[in-house]
Amino acid sequence: MGMIMMKKLVKYFVVDAFTESAFKGNPAAVCLLEEGHERDDSWLQSLAAEFHLPMTSLLLPITGSASLHPPCFLLRWFTSIAEACLSNTLSFHMIDICGHATLAAAHTVFSNGLIGSSDTVEFSTHSGTLTAKRVDDCEAKGSFFIELNFPVITTCEYSSSDLSMFAKALKGATIVDIRGTATDKLVSKPLKGSTKPTTTDRIMVVLSSWESVIELQPKTDDIMKCPAKVIIVTAAAPEGSAFDFCSRLFAPKIGVTEDSACGSAHYWSLKTNKCDFVAYAASHRSGALKVHYDKEKQRVLLTSKAVTVMKGSVLI
Question: What is the structure's pLDDT at 83?
Fold first, then answer.
């Protein structure tokens, strides 16, 4: 009889990010790939589709990084779907940058002792090197925050002759501003044979009140008709609130009907002349994070917690 080949296990974790409570915040799957067992984009996309979560992170240790400080992993993010590109050929949609999936990846690394006693880990991504730092919570023994160091995605003037499509998609909510995003500072470089898109295609819509964002029930079909792949809806918090602003994110074109936690720090820094914020994710799952905007370095520090709610193995 021939030798029976054992299937290789891929460990995975499902993590709720931007929260300290299970089933809140923003969920992501985190898969740990091992050196020598890399897979092509088609397989990775199929795995993300199998999880069918808003985002799946794929982590691969970089050869020789265990002796470095900080240790480094290759990190890629996938939604659960593929999309057709302009040439009408099938293109797997890989996300250029994602906060909650990076937080989930960092939580997995720190919680499972993958980097020993180091309190910092680096992720090599299509948007450059992203750093995550573990910060102990002095008020809760054994609990910790994670601080992410991200590039700024700046907002810019959005010029369009037809803004009525946004009003229609948002069911007539009162719009006070619409901004585009500028992503020229994001690093674009190939990773494992793939190249990051040169634009992010996000549009931010500012509504008149916190309640308008909370109560919003957008029309998904009409959001699909808007020019951007990602629509962020935001508003300032009312006076006396523990938060500075709230946000919701809708991206049905890339398989995310609504993202459960997101931020919009650059816009609010320009509006308020502040650099430190507490942001509230106004989706039904809710979520919270602290945000620091470093104007000099053009970086954003995102600080929050995460919770592992599932773990297991995928058979290759």
Answer: 33
